[in-house]
């Protein structure tokens, strides 16, 4: 039934392991198996907080799950890389021009490995076999070469900690002595008499007249000269720095990605469903990179990282290949964006190209190249891809980064791609990330939208839900009349979570 979506609702709502905090039974979500799905239907679903892993489409139960997962999107056309993101691009270019020798990977972790293991992300559910019917429808430092500054005792260097502490003791003693004189003067009612140089101070109170004068004034003059010299040098270099910063500020993301050294990293966008010839040729290499990544980064057992598992979660997709007016030249559907370095596949980004966005599904890379910060770099590349596809697909303007988890430090980096927006779990409207942060600091789960705005697509009529029953397509009202409607609450929950538009357009399989 090309051109229509068919899903199978899983009514179970059991707790399972959370891939973010690691708790065993604190993650809750609702899910369904998508036997086939149009790109527009999936676009509408992710705009209500859904997300796919293979053909399994799930929606976190936000007010129950341990780590609430907020859908996040970046306005790709308005995006400008931050200072740290520019540094990543320059770092990649530098390392590609001068490859490191020896091990440079260091510890695996950080935002480039923040996503949970793909296997832990969804419960293990088996769909029914569905026969799809055919239908129509600052201070300056002294140089080490400078001579040491001495105190009153020429045998003691100023670098000796006993000198500074001794000087402090003299100052403190002098202050306390002056305080005592003042207090006695006030008590007697007589004015304070100035000290005379002929008076010899008691030991420990003031300088010893038998010793040469202190060179403190000389030291101060030298420090002032050094400060002036440092200011002069800084002022001379300021115009150049300002020019560099101004040039960087005027550069677009694409300008940074045009670095000559980056041309060594070849990008290939290959369709993964249905499987293109290019995908078939590189299938084995892609799987080997996945296996290596899962074992090194997520510590999965090698015998569990099978090709079947990889295929089920990162190759299989319910999305139909579509080539409609206003779509990009590559069409809509599911793709793998491959990163090739000198003929070697080093990373793969699993993507969905939808009517309004490029949606990131997963990234895996060869851990030998961890030093390239491929997690951040790939996100910048995918934003650039979104902008490129927009040139022929005007409605394709957003980059969806999956879920933003405020309680997970490794996942909060997604909010740094400005401007970005989070999906309110109650009104299903988009709110700027900077507006959401104070609310999420106060509570893991929060309504992000202002009070008063409601879910515009939440007014559902369960009888208008489309049902596929015994190879016949019918509204739920007729299905209920035939079967007695004992599943009405399950269907109502499905329709409410999917939204009125999808509930009346997507076909719900019942057996």
Q: How would you characterize this protein structure?
A:
This protein is α+β, with helices and mostly antiparallel strands and 511 residues long. Helices cover 34% and strands 18% of the residues. The chain has twelve helices and 15 strands. It has an eight-stranded mixed β-sheet with strand order 6-7-8-9-10-5-11-12, with helices on both faces. It has a seven-stranded mixed β-sheet with strand order 3-4-2-1-15-13-14. The chain is globular and about 115 Å long. The model is unreliable at 103-111 and 134-197 (pLDDT under 50).
Briefly summarize what is shown.
34% of the residues lie in helices and 18% in strands.
Give the biggest sheet: 8 strands, mixed
Order of helices and strands: EEHEEEHHHHEHHEEEHEEEHEEHHHE
Nearest-angstrom radius of gyration? Answer: 34 Å
Number of beta-strand segments: 15
Which structural class is indicated by helix and strand composition?
alpha+beta
Shape: globular
Low-confidence parts: 103-111, 134-197
- Helix tally equals 12
Strand content: 15-25%
Determine the mean pLDDT: 83
Q: Cα distance, first to last residue?
A: 18 Å
Helix content: 25-40%
How are strands sequenced across the largest beta sheet? Answer: 6-7-8-9-10-5-11-12
Task: List key phrases describing it.
alpha+beta; 15 strands; globular
Topology:
Elements: E1 6-10, E2 29-36, H1 39-46, E3 51-53, E4 56-60, E5 70-75, H2 83-97, H3 161-188, H4 216-250, H5 253-256, E6 265-273, H6 277-297, H7 307-315, E7 333-341, E8 344-353, E9 357-365, H8 374-390, E10 398-404, E11 420-423, E12 430-432, H9 433-442, E13 466-469, E14 472-475, H10 476-483, H11 488-498, H12 500-505, E15 507-510
Parallel strand pairs: 1-15, 9-10, 13-15
Antiparallel strand pairs: 1-2, 2-4, 3-4, 5-10, 5-11, 6-7, 7-8, 8-9, 11-12, 13-14
């Amino acid at each position: 039934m090309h051109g229509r979506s068919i899903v199978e609702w899983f009514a179970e709502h059991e707790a399972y392991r959370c891939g973010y905090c690691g708790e065993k039974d604190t993650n809750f979500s609702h899910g369904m198996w998508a036997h086939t799905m149009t790109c527009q239907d999936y676009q509408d679903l992710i705009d209500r907080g859904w997300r796919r892993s293979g053909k399994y489409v799930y929606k976190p139960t936000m007010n129950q799950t341990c780590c609430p997962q907020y859908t996040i999107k970046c306005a790709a056309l308005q995006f400008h890389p931050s200072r740290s993101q520019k540094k990543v691009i320059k770092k990649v270019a530098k390392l590609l021009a001068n490859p490191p020798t020896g091990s440079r990977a260091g510890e695996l972790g950080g935002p480039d490995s923040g996503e949970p293991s793909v296997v832990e992300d969804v419960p293990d559910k088996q769909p029914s076999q569905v026969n799809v019917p055919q239908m129509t429808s600052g201070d300056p430092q002294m140089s080490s070469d400078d001579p040491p500054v001495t105190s009153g005792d020429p045998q003691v260097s100023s670098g000796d900690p006993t000198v500074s502490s001794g000087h402090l003791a003299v100052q403190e003693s002098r202050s306390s002595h002056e305080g005592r004189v003042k207090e006695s003067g006030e008590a007697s009612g007589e004015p304070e008499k100035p000290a005379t140089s002929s008076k010899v101070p008691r030991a420990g109170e003031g300088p010893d007249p038998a010793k040469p004068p202190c060179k403190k004034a000389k030291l101060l003059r030298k420090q002032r000269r050094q400060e002036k010299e440092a200011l002069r040098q800084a002022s001379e270099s300021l115009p150049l720095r300002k020019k560099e910063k101004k040039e960087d500020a005027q550069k677009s993301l694409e300008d940074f990605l045009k670095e000559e050294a980056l041309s060594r990293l070849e990008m290939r966008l290959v369709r993964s469903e249905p499987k293109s010839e290019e995908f078939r040729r590189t299938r084995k290499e892609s799987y080997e990179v996945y296996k290596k990544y899962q074992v090194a980064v997520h510590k999965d057992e090698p015998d569990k990282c099978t090709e079947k598992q990889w295929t089920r979660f990162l190759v299989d997709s319910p999305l139909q290949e579509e080539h409609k007016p206003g779509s990009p030249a590559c069409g809509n559907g599911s793709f793998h964006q491959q990163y090739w370095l000198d003929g070697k596949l080093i990373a793969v980004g699993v993507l969905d190209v939808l009517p309004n966005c490029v949606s990131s599904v997963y990234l895996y890379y060869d851990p030998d190249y961890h030093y390239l910060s491929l997690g951040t770099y790939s996100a910048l590349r995918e934003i650039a891809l979104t902008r490129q596809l927009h040139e022929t697909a005007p409605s394709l303007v957003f980059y969806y980064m999956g879920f933003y988890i405020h309680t997970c430090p490794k996942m909060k980096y997604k909010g740094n791609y400005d401007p970005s927006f989070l999906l309110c779990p109650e009104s299903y409207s988009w709110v700027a990330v900077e507006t959401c942060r104070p609310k999420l600091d106060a509570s893991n789960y929060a309504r992000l939208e202002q009070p008063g705005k409601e879910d515009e697509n939440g007014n559902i009529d369960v009888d208008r839900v489309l049902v596929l029953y015994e190879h016949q397509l019918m509204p739920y009202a007729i299905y209920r009349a035939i079967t007695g409607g004992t599943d009405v609450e399950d269907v109502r929950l499905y329709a409410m979570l999917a939204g009125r538009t999808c509930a009346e357009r997507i076909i719900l399989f019942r057996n």
